[in-house]
Write a structure and sequence with these properties.
disordered N terminus; mainly beta; YmcC-like fold; 6% helix; globular; 16-stranded antiparallel sheet; 18 strands; 1 helix; 237 residues
Length: 237
C-alpha cells in the first residue's frame, strides 16, 4: 500500500494486538473490551437525522467513493460505495441507504445495502445491512445480513461524534451474525493514496470476534470518509 505509517501508529497497533489478543491471521485470540456505550444509538431513546454530516463519515446523497487494491493472492479488488437517494425504516428509525459493491478481478462478489442515521450528538449509528453474495454472477447467499430490532439486534456505532485515541466501540450488535468492533488508534496521520495526500485522518483497527479476532485497518479522511480499507485505497471521490 502507499500509506505512510508513523512509528507511533505501529506501536499503537502492536499494543492493540498484545493487549487485545487479536490476530490478523486468525490465531484464536479475542477482541479487547469496548469502553464506549452504544446507548446513543438506542432506537427507543434517541432522536435521529438523515442529515449525516459527521466529519469522518459524511453521507451526502449522490456521493461515491471508489477504492482499489490487491489482496494477498494477487486478485484485483474494487469497492464502490454510493450514497443512495433512498431510505429504509429499521427498528422504527428512518435510515439512509448506502450501497457497497465489492469486486474481485472485475467479478462482483458482494453487494450490500447499509442503513445509517445520525444521533443528536453527531454519532453515526449503524442499523444493519442487507447482503447479496455472488458467485459467477448469481446470488448464492446473504452472509452477515442483519437488522437492528430483529432477534435482539441493536444498532452499533460506525463513527463517533468526537473520536479519541483509545476509544473502543461496537460497530455491529447482532449476536452470532455480525459483531465487529473498532478501536481508534491514531488521529492526524498523513496518508498518500491514489486520490491524493491527506493529513486530517482517523485510523481504526477493526476486530472481528467471529473470525478469531481478525483485524482490518481502516483510515478515514475528514469531509471525505473511508480512504483505506485494508488492501484497498481511495482512487476517486
Amino acid at each position: 500500500m502507499l500509506k505512510k505509517v508513523s512509528v507511533s501508529v505501529l506501536t499503537l497497533a502492536l499494543s492493540f494486538l498484545i493487549i487485545g489478543g487479536c490476530s490478523s491471521s486468525g490465531g484464536g485470540g479475542s477482541c479487547p473490551e469496548t469502553n464506549i456505550s452504544i446507548t446513543v444509538c438506542d432506537p427507543d431513546t434517541g432522536t435521529f437525522s438523515l442529515i449525516i454530516d459527521n466529519g469522518f463519515f459524511p453521507l451526502v446523497v449522490g456521493d461515491e467513493l471508489v477504492l482499489e487494491g490487491e489482496d494477498d493472492e494477487g486478485a484485483f479488488l474494487e469497492v464502490i460505495i454510493t450514497v443512495l437517494d433512498e431510505t429504509e425504516v429499521v427498528a422504527g428509525v428512518t435510515t439512509r441507504v448506502v450501497e457497497e459493491a465489492e469486486f474481485e478481478d472485475g467479478e462482483v462478489v458482494e453487494i450490500s445495502r447499509n442503513f445509517y442515521a445520525q444521533a443528536q450528538d453527531g454519532t453515526v449509528c449503524y442499523f444493519g445491512e442487507d447482503v447479496d453474495d455472488y458467485e459467477d454472477g448469481m446470488i448464492v447467499g446473504h452472509g452477515g445480513q442483519w437488522r437492528a430490532g430483529e432477534n435482539g439486534n441493536l444498532p452499533g456505532i460506525i463513527m463517533l461524534a468526537d473520536p479519541q485515541v483509545g476509544d473502543i466501540y461496537a460497530q455491529e450488535a447482532a449476536p452470532g451474525i455480525a459483531e465487529d468492533q473498532a478501536e481508534v488508534v491514531a488521529l492526524g496521520e498523513t496518508i498518500e493514496v491514489p486520490a491524493g495526500t491527506f493529513s486530517d485522518t482517523l485510523t481504526t483497527l477493526d476486530c472481528n470476534p467471529m473470525e478469531n479476532a481478525a483485524i482490518d485497518e481502516k483510515v478515514y479522511v475528514d469531509e471525505i470518509g473511508l480512504a483505506i480499507d485494508e488492501d484497498a485505497e481511495l482512487v476517486s471521490f
